[in-house]
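STRUCTURE:
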């Protein structure tokens, strides 16, 4: 009787394993692909969207100070990964007095947001990996599926990190950036400006510098910011895609247990 029970259990496990590999994996990957394509609509890249239209449109944004200071004011037009227009004014000390300095960004000298470009590139890598999977392909082992999902998670983690964890740059890097040359007229030599993304926020940071110090020292820092809805949606969809991948990974671990038994 015990031997018969073992055989019956093995048959059940084998059928469960076949069902997971033949039916469930492709369905889960399709759900992940749908989420990533929806996320791609928030990025200004051609990704073979098909029926998924791009949602990126020019957006005029009034940025405000989180602590209600009036050291800097800024209105920008954001188009995907580019600030294509901006009016910036800030208080700048000239001699003993403060005066208002004004500068601008024009469409012919746009400020590129590398974080959005990088996040979109990692997203594109994940979508491309899914597009390469033949829907008629028969998965044979859990390891085969796990390798695919691990690569997807890696790409999505990198993409989300680009938006949520901006890399710290030195003042010298900021001032030497081609983006800094987008400002017309150029800002004074003791001032540096930086646009960057932090999660769902677009932030403009203003640095007042000690003249002649080496290395360059910051005497004061101010910022204005604004929430951007489509950035928030992109972060949410990156997170959802990673969660879906993890759920599939959990099922794959079950498959691996089946394979060990069989």
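SEQUENCE:
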């Amino acid at each position: 009787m015990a031997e018969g029970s073992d055989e019956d259990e093995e048959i059940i496990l084998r059928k469960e394993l076949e069902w997971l590999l033949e039916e469930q994996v492709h369905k889960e990957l399709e759900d992940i692909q749908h989420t990533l394509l929806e996320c791609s609509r928030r990025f200004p890249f051609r990704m073979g969207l098909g029926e998924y239209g791009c949602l990126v449109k020019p957006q005029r944004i009034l940025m405000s100070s989180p602590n209600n200071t009036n050291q800097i004011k800024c209105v920008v037009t954001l188009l995907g990964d580019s600030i294509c227009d901006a009016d910036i004014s800030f208080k700048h000390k000239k001699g003993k007095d403060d005066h208002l300095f004004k500068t601008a960004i024009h469409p012919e000298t746009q400020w590129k947001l590398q974080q959005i470009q990088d996040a979109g590139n990692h997203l594109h890598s994940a979508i491309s990996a899914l597009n390469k999977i033949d829907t008629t392909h028969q998965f044979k082992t859990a390891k085969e599926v796990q390798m695919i999902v691990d690569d997807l998670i890696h790409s999505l983690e990198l993409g989300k990190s680009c938006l949520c964890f901006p890399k710290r740059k030195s003042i010298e890097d900021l001032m030497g950036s081609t983006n800094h040359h987008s400002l017309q007229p150029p800002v004074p030599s003791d001032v540096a400006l930086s646009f960057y993304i932090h999660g769902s926020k677009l932030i403009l940071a203003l640095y007042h510098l000690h003249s002649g110090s080496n290395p360059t020292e910051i005497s004061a820092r101010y910022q204005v910011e604004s929430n951007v809805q489509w950035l928030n949606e992109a972060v949410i969809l990156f997170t959802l895609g990673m969660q879906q991948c993890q759920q599939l990974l959990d099922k794959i671990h079950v498959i691996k247990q089946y394979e060990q038994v069989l």
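REMARK: The chain has a mean pLDDT of 88.
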